[in-house]
């Protein structure tokens, strides 16, 4: 078999192939891994990136192993989380800086991406070693450019710079995050920048972007306040020689003089919420009870996101939030959890009766969960001067760091854990092909609420703002091209306009099949051998077999990853969360092993 893409998703598949092979295949397998980046870590988690870049998950919240929570046909094979592995990495040859970081790391630390790279490479070697006796694994540090072969014959995978193809019974596309061709508006902006001698960086993976073109001391507009912006600020500040020093209860930034001045805004106008730094104080979470994909799918017909899914999702998240509030902080509520939860279960989330239940049982407004206020926290607020808005937003960020660092607010963690359960259920709905009306809002809201930076990154952002390296523009940000410059402002400070010589899109490229830059997918699309499902690569809902343009599954081709209609984003997961990617890996591994076993029987008979 050939796996195109050798990052952590491919390693997870290899682990599931090894776990399931004794029951479904028995004999050895020959595997070819195709990826220009190192096997195990792949592009995103490669060691060769700035040591300043970190994960936005705590070490104890990262695992590549299935556990008792994972609902799959294949055998569960538990193993250490990143934190558990870090306690004894003695069998691994490590970079000295990585080894030093591991020695100082706690389970609640947010490790560097290079530490995660080491863990992923270790897991990969372990997965390869577990394959059936006699198996072989060949690594090809190249890019796959073409795939040929009908359903009846072995497949041929053509690699860049190689005249002969790899030949295999089955092919799995485990491509990970992909580049896309620049959108027309980005090409237009790039032309404008070139004409006027300005700096423009379109959407990109921050670790891959060439930031050398961003001049020191220049005013640069940044569009986006998510994780891509956090990485950008790190690389343009500390990455250029600046440093942070303790200053009372916070930090002070000591500039190198090589930093630009970043003027940043977004639609929402505030940074992503900090990750929580505490554990639950009340009852542990359970499986989703209100938003259950199987129950929605049993109804038949299309499932509209706003009408059918979101009210149940909101109720599920609120249930997790209130369970922790009532069981972890009983002094802040006026009724027992059993009484509240029984009535809660009877009511629609958006009903007047639900609002009355909240008012009667949760005395403090600050403890009531309000999704609309969470989503757009500064809507309707305006400020007379940019200085007044800066002070307001610095206070907002400071309050967020304090909230996410104090277990008095552990109900937020209850909501976060419920969000993870909801995320997995929504992936099942999306894979069914019956979910309509989701315009991307959910993924943005999820990321903003649950996938933000470590709290100390926001502490650093506050220090950068106080040092004048970062200034905040506000909500509903706008950017115009005029007077040979980039002009920017927002609804938060009417009349205030920044004039800048640079513009950076601090967001990841949105991959679609129509505009993919991946040569293999482009060739399949041109040949009509892949289907476009709302911009995603179409795969079958049950086992992720690649669908051709007519919607027919190819028995010898599979595809997994965020670019597919069965998208399960994370290749690794928080332990004990029944991670969608782990379940999907098991399904794919079992399907391809059954195919290989049947093919060998047919060939032996023939």
UniProtKB/TrEMBL annotation:
Question: What highest taxon heads this organism's lineage?
Answer: Bacteria
Quote the Pfam families the UniProt record gives.
Answer: NAD_binding_9
Q: Which residues form the FAD-dependent urate hydroxylase HpyO/Asp monooxygenase CreE-like FAD/NAD(P)-binding domain?
A: 2-177
By its UniProt entry, which PANTHER family does this protein fall under? Answer: BLR0577 PROTEIN
Q: Organism, per UniProt?
A: Saccharothrix espanaensis (strain ATCC 51144 / DSM 44229 / JCM 9112 / NBRC 15066 / NRRL 15764)
InterPro entries xref list: HpyO/CreE_NAD-binding, L-asp_N-monooxygenase_NS-form
| Name of the molecule in the record | FAD-dependent urate hydroxylase HpyO/Asp monooxygenase CreE-like FAD/NAD(P)-binding domain-containing protein
């Amino acid at each position: 078999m050939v796996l195109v893409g050798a990052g952590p998703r491919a390693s997870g598949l290899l682990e599931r192939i090894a776990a399931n092979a004794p029951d479904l295949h028995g004999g050895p397998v020959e595997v070819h891994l195709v990826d220009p980046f190192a096997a195990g870590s792949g592009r995103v988690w490669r060691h060769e990136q700035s040591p300043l870049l970190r994960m936005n998950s705590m070490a104890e919240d990262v695992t590549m192993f299935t556990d008792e929570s994972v609902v799959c046909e294949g055998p569960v094979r538990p193993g250490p989380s990143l934190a558990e592995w870090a306690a004894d990495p003695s069998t691994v040859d490590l970079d000295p800086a990585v080894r030093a970081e591991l020695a100082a790391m706690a389970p609640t630390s947010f490790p560097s991406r290079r530490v995660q790279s080491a863990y992923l490479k270790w897991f990969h070697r372990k997965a390869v070693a577990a394959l059936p006796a006699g198996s072989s694994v060949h690594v090809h540090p190249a890019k796959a450019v073409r795939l040929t072969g009908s359903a009846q014959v072995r497949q041929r995978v053509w690699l860049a710079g190689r005249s002969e193809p790899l030949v295999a019974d089955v092919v799995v596309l485990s491509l990970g995050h992909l580049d896309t061709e620049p959108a027309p508006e980005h090409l237009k902006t790039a032309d404008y920048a070139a004409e006027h001698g300005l700096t423009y960086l379109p959407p990109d993976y921050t670790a891959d972007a060439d930031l050398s073109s961003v001049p020191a001391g220049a005013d640069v507009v940044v569009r986006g306040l998510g994780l891509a912006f956090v990485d950008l600020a790190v690389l343009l500040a500390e990455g250029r020689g600046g440093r942070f020093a303790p200053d009372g209860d916070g930090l002070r930034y000591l500039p190198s003089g090589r930093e630009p001045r970043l003027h940043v805004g977004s639609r929402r106008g505030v940074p992503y919420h900090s990750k929580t730094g505490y554990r639950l104080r009340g009852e542990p979470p359970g499986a989703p009870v209100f938003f259950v994909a199987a129950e929605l799918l049993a109804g038949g017909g299309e499932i509209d996101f706003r009408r059918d899914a979101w009210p149940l999702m909101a109720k599920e998240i609120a249930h997790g939030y209130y369970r922790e509030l009532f069981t972890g902080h009983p002094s802040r509520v006026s009724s027992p959890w059993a009484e509240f939860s029984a009535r809660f279960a009877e009511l629609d989330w958006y009903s007047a009766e639900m609002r009355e239940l909240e008012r009667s049982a949760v005395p403090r407004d600050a403890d009531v969960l309000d999704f609309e206020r969470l989503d757009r926290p500064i809507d309707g607020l305006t400020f007379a001067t940019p200085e007044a808005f800066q002070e307001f937003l610095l206070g907002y960020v400071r309050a967020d760091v304090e909230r996410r660092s104090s277990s008095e607010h552990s109900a937020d963690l209850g909501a976060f854990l419920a969000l993870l359960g909801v995320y997995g259920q929504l992936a099942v709905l999306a894979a069914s092909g019956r979910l309509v009306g989701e315009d991307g809002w959910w993924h943005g809201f999820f990321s903003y609420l649950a996938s933000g930076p470590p709290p100390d990154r926001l502490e650093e952002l506050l220090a950068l703002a106080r040092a004048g390296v970062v200034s905040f523009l506000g909500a509903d940000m706008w950017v115009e091209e005029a007077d040979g410059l980039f002009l920017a402002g927002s609804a938060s400070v009417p009349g205030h306009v920044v004039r800048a010589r640079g513009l950076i899109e601090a967001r990841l490229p949105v991959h679609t099949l129509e505009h993919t830059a991946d040569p293999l997918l482009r060739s399949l699309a041109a040949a009509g051998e892949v289907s476009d499902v709302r911009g995603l690569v179409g795969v079958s809902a049950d086992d992720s077999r690649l669908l051709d343009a007519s919607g027919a599954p190819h028995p010898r081709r599979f595809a997994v990853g965020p670019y597919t209609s069965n998208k399960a984003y994370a290749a690794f997961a928080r332990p004990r969360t029944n991670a969608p990617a782990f379940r999907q890996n098991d399904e794919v591994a079992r399907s391809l092993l059954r195919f290989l076993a049947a093919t060998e029987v047919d060939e032996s008979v023939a």
